[in-house]
Design goal:
The structure is a homodimer of 273-residue chains. Chain A is of the alpha/beta class and 273 residues long. Chain A contains 8 helices and 16 strands. Chain A has one domain: 3-Layer(aba) Sandwich (Carbamate kinase), CATH 3.40.1160.10. In chain A, the strands form 5 sheets. An 8-stranded mixed β-sheet of chain A has the order 5-10-2-1-13-15-16-14, sandwiched between helices.
Chain lengths: 273, 273
């Protein structure tokens, strides 16, 4: 079976033009079929501020209202995505920039209204997250995605999906990466790679040299029990192990500027079964 | 040979949400392979105004500076393109939204600096149009575009291209439509359709019932000689006949809300050899 790499970069790379160019050059050099998923970064927040659109929060939860959706569609789906594609073309990588609506590859469900207890209002409220899309295993049209990969294109996804009924939806980029990887395990031996600002999962979050090279579910359980895993990492790692349970061969978590190590299996922390 | 329809819509449709939905529903219903190219409309101008970006003109010629390119990349490549794609998906048309950078389909040349005589400054000046892309017959990678068509996707292009060196470029949508149609004549029997605000080419520009049903080069020459063709139409028609000279079977020019007539060859003015 051919191998496939699904790589996610976050806002810290997007926001730094030099880092981004260096990353894209490294990404282009990775051999074989690959997919890139990019998050947003601060450009959308900056544009919202310039347009006088205030971030809408209910009880600390971010809401995607109509204005915010317009901004992220412009910034993630247009500005960031198309500039990444043009840069990858410069590095001889035949990128094609997509949202989940394109070729109907990711069809999400609008997050349902939830009853929560609002601390702010000291009462139960119906919380509507707005135009946010949630994903499950049935969300991805793997056949369409494979057609693009088999044509020799490198899909580049922004974190926008749709509901199949004409509505675009804001969607978590980590989840998109994980769901895309899991949906292609029948066609490819799939690796999922999360790039972030640290060298990987660390024994001591303040010591970049304390990298944990590999973690399996039993090591993960011990690390959590002993309070070694930083709380912010837990959703990321839960997400990663879920992808592995769904057939993804391995998940790497590491620093975006170390991507070239991937070819030698030398990149950050490796999670496996 | 299979037939292919390359259809261009302008800003007047984009700016009217009801007209746009009605057009997209009609477009989705057209049988066989097809491509959509859309222009911009007033949304980009509105966003520029909100952001305090002034339209830059030199001697009446519009310049695409860096700020303007950012705005059109967001609005044409993101907001408009992705909403059109999501709507087409609703109408069961498997659209994929693209710029010329995606899959390297349209590689343009940045318009060279031109020496012009400036009336404003009453002297010769070097005019730099900024980030504007010009196209010729070699600009299109027909093989990549055919892979998308053969996969059953409907490409939807915004009027953004790239130079292959990492730079996005603002490009005339009419020209994109004409060049795309001409580049596919070996693989498809190609028709090019321009949708605009009139019923077609009119004998009397103020009388919608004075439609000229068909024009060939000799009729065109007579109409021009007799001053019947409205001056604003001449570049559009020159463009159309150039496409026909390059192997496009026919060009239709008509009103966007009459698109369903295409299936019966009953749409606006038909230009042929």
């Amino acid at each position: 079976m051919r191998s496939l790499k699904v790589i996610k970069i976050g806002g810290n790379v997007i926001d730094n033009p030099e880092k981004l160019q260096s990353f894209l050059s490294d990404f282009a050099a990775i051999e074989g079929p690959k997919i890139l998923i990019h998050g947003g970064g601060k450009i959308a927040t900056k544009l919202s501020t310039e347009l006088g659109i205030e971030a809408k929060l209910i009880d600390g939860r971010r809401i995607t209202d109509e204005d915010t959706l317009r901004v992220v569609t412009m910034v993630y789906g247009g500005l960031i995505n198309k500039n990444i594609v043009a840069s990858l073309q410069k590095y001889q990588c035949n990128a094609i920039g997509l949202t989940g609506a394109d070729a109907n590859i990711i069809c999400a469900k609008k997050r349902p209204v939830k009853k929560i207890f609002s601390k702010e209002m000291n009462q139960a409220i119906d919380l509507d997250y707005g135009f946010v899309g949630d994903l499950d295993k049935s969300s991805v049209d793997a056949a369409s995605l494979c057609k693009l990969l088999e044509s020799g294109f490198t899909p580049v996804f922004s974190a926008i999906t749709h509901d199949g009924k004409g509505q675009l939806l804001n969607t978590n980029a980590d989840t998109i990466a994980s769901i895309l990887a899991a949906s292609l395990v029948k066609q490819y031996e799939t690796s999922l790679i999360y790039c972030f600002e640290k060298s990987g999962v660390l024994m001591d979050v303040n010591d970049e040299s304390s990298l944990i090279e590999s973690i399996n579910p039993s090591v993960y359980s011990d690390l959590k029990k002993n309070g070694i895993i930083n709380e912010g990492m837990i959703p990321k790692l839960d997400n990663a192990f879920e992808a592995i349970e769904n057939g993804v061969k391995e998940v790497f978590i590491g620093k975006s500027d170390a991507l070239t190590g991937l070819n030698q299996n030398n990149f950050g922390t490796r999670l496996t079964m």
